[in-house]
UniProtKB/TrEMBL annotation, chain A:
CDD domains: ABC_NikE_OppD_transporters. The keyword Transport applies. GO terms for biological process: peptide transport. One of its GO terms (molecular function) is ATP hydrolysis activity. NCBIfam families: oligo_HPY. It comes from the Bacteria. It holds the Pfam family oligo_HPY. This is Oligopeptide/dipeptide ABC transporter, ATP-binding protein, C-terminal domain-containing protein.
TrEMBL record, chain B:
The keyword ATP-binding applies. This is Oligopeptide transport system ATP-binding protein. It comes from Paenibacillus jilunlii. GO terms for molecular function: ATP binding; ATP hydrolysis activity. The keyword ATP-binding applies. SUPFAM superfamilies: P-loop containing nucleoside triphosphate hydrolases (SSF52540).
Amino acid sequence: MVQPILKVEELHTHFFTERGEVPAVDGVDLYINPGEVLGVVGESGCGKSVTSLSILKLVPNPPGKIVSGRILLKGQDIVPLKEKEMRSIRGGAVSMIFQEPMTSLNPLFTVGQQIIETVRLHRGLSKKDARTHAVDMLRKVGIPRPEAIIGEYPHQLSGGMRQRVMIAMSISCSPELLIADEPTTALDVTIQAQILDLIRKLNEEQGTAVMLITHDLGVVAEMCQRVAVMYAGKVVEEGSVRDIFKNPLHPYTRGLIQSVPRMGETRERLYSIPGNVPILSKELQGCRFAPRCSHVMELCRQSLPQLKLQEDNHSCRCWLHDSQQEDAV
Amino acid sequence: MKDSLLEVKNLKKYYPVNKGFFNKTQAYIKAVDDISFAVRKGETFGLVGESGCGKSTAGRSLLRLIEPTAGEVWFEDRDITKLSMEEMRKHRREMQIVFQDPFSSLDPRNTVQRILEEPMIVHGAGNAKERRAAVERLADVVGLAKAQLQRYPHQFSGGQRQRIGIARALALQPKLIIADEPVSALDVSIQSQVINLMQDLQQEFGLTYIFIAHDLSVVKHICDRVAVMYLGRIVEITDKNKLYDQPQHPYTQALLSAVPEPDPDIRKERVILQGEVPSPANAPVGCAFNTRCPRVMDVCRSTRPALLETGPGHLTACHLYNGEDRTHLYKMNLKDS
């Protein structure tokens, strides 16, 4: 059994707001093996982004706080680590790219300065070496004329170029894990294809493990080996990409997959899941999906099912697939 | 076309770029650059393309929410670009729009009741009692509860707000609805609810839609015919099956191949386009796509291809399929040598 590069156990990240405590991440379990691409899917508000921010301890505190749980990075729990120690991990062993590259690059510094800063901090290279390294990185992510681009400011670049710069920066210290939070959502399809191609190459050539957070099932099917589906702050199903798409167990996963129009087929009507995502609160009881579920049972409203292994590496959080259903009653 | 509801002829929208001390017009951004198409009664006509291709500008020019620079828009039997503002306002009863962002397109200080009633007040439809009844009917049609009518937009979720936007567009019983990216701000499970609603309404009221979107899978699902735009121009128009099964223009081919499919067993032969869309202020000479086209020829860099019939009901603007232009160039080459 390989040791996963990242293992998240029973993670709870809550936000303390005026309206009360909001459990945005409500007991999440995840793992990523070295060299693997894990997709985390779910709709807005399901907690996928807060999970990724929690892993790097970037959740703004206050109002947010990791209430409990462990985040094991190569076996070491990073939850108790101090800010100073976290800084050497961020951008080093683990780095992250965000959805909107304009807001995550500093507008006051040139592209080069930002990459050089990262490299010098983590690798202690000289200014000159760091610059050469930065140019190499920009070339690697397919930026034309890297020697010129290195002196430009983020606003001078297009959206696709900025995302390339973000990727160049995040891989400049050869991270073992890259967390990509909706990296292509703000981009056009033809540019999205370029960026996904780049991330795939990184994964294949350097063996960088990738945690790809997205709401686009097409991107997931194309990029990932394993998928975790999140709903209302919890992982509801997890398995290989084939299992998730061809043999989904959880009614939410099934509904989600059926409600996406596909190019290869013609349907009169799309399936749609009735109702809306619940407003998160500590008072929620039972399965979070119960109010929208077509298979809902009395038990679902009262008691929360556990994430249970069903077959080979395929687990699901649903009473329909839980043998202890009778016991719970 | 005799069965068409809307016919657009050579529509252009240019924005001047002013520079220098005297603010002289130096150039034009050709947001919409000479497009023509017809929309049939009762169909859903898709307008697709990437950001900045001019699809939204085109949509708004059709309603004259943006005044077109040149061209004609025939709605039923009138060229609406020639109408006075007052006549145009009356005419908009028949043509309505649904916007992308359900958060900014509803007045936050009005109740839903008021939002839905306003178009009827503006156009003097019915008295207060009739209007109230009409609003309740509308709410029912789009799936809002009667009790929700007294609430404000911020109290609704994105999907519900889009329902309000659609109800407002329906308030005056229009013939044509221009939907500008109506579902792209919504989550997948909510997106399918709104798409289904739009299809039901089309059936019920015999509506014609112009559906502007960048999501090609959604367009394939809802549209009957599709026009693909690139840099202000239409590069291909045909019915959806032909477009998705036998795309002709190299841009359409690349665009379709770039869409990730939600099926891990499908491995597509992918055309990854190099580079990015050029700025519309500085569009390439000849075919707008020549800087990124994998099959570019010399003629593409000099002559803009016309949108010509390349098969039954299939129009493409590409020199690859355009026999006439090629012979013309061939002759020119002969003369030169």
